[in-house]
Amino acid sequence: MIRLDLPHSTVEDLENLPDDIRAELINGEIVMMSASSTHSLVCTALTLAIGAHVQARTDRKDKDDWVIIAEAWVTYDKHNSFVHDLAGFFRKDLANRSERGAIKSKPAWVCEVMSPSNWSNDTQRKRIILEEHQVPYYWIVDPYRKTVQVFELKDKNEHYQIIYAADIGDGVVTLPPFQDLKLNLVKLFEDYL
């Protein structure tokens, strides 16, 4: 991952980058995002599976329904603004979102799909910031190891704890916070890769 040499950057610096540059802001550091076909395929598969599940159960009048957004650009504070692979929000929390720029509402669920260039950012740096900002659920999906880890805020909402770990050998799993979603890990990791 390429990093721009702009220490103590802010969301404003990130927003002023040219439109064709994909980057995030992590602890005041602008970090360039790279793409890989494996990462993209798994993100697409998850978006289709979770999106279809949520859509089938959605009542657009229910403000507590989920809204799943792929490539969700979310700003947490002036030094942290991420493009999450997937993020889940409650409809009521998106009511005042702007048409342009980042989402300012906190997601209830975030999913990051690993690639070799983003490993430490997603498993360490972002995870700490999401914990500080009280994002209830955080998934780390590793297409190379064919695993999914589910973290939930515990200890009076102060620290993430791993509450579920699954790999391709587990087949079909149900992962919080989507209690009635049956996610087929064989299909996710083998059919798409």
Structure commentary:
With 193 residues, the protein is an alpha+beta fold. The protein is 24% helix and 33% strand. It is built from four helices and ten strands. The protein has a six-stranded mixed beta sheet. A two-stranded antiparallel ribbon has the order 1-2. Strands 9-10 form a two-stranded antiparallel ribbon. The mean pLDDT is 87.
Secondary structure layout:
Blueprint: H1 11-15, E1 23-26, E2 29-32, H2 37-56, E3 66-77, E4 80-90, E5 109-113, H3 119-132, E6 137-142, E7 147-154, E8 159-167, E9 172-173, E10 183-184, H4 185-191
Parallel strand pairs: 5-6
Antiparallel strand pairs: 1-2, 3-4, 4-5, 6-7, 7-8, 9-10
Describe what is shown at a glance.
Helices cover 24% and strands 33% of the residues.
Task: Report helical residue fraction.
Answer: 10-25%
Number of strands: 10
What integer value in Å does the Rg equal? 16 Å
Q: Cα distance, first to last residue? A: 22 Å
Question: Which CATH-level-2 architecture?
Answer: Alpha-Beta Complex
User: What series of H and E elements makes up the topology?
Assistant: HEEHEEEHEEEEEH
Question: What would the principal axes of the Cα set say about the shape?
Answer: globular
Rounded mean pLDDT is: 87
CATH superfamily: tt1808, chain A
Largest sheet: number of strands, sense, barrel closure: 6 strands, mixed
Features:
single chain, 193 residues, alpha+beta, tt1808, chain A, six-stranded mixed β-sheet, two-stranded antiparallel sheet, 4 helices, globular
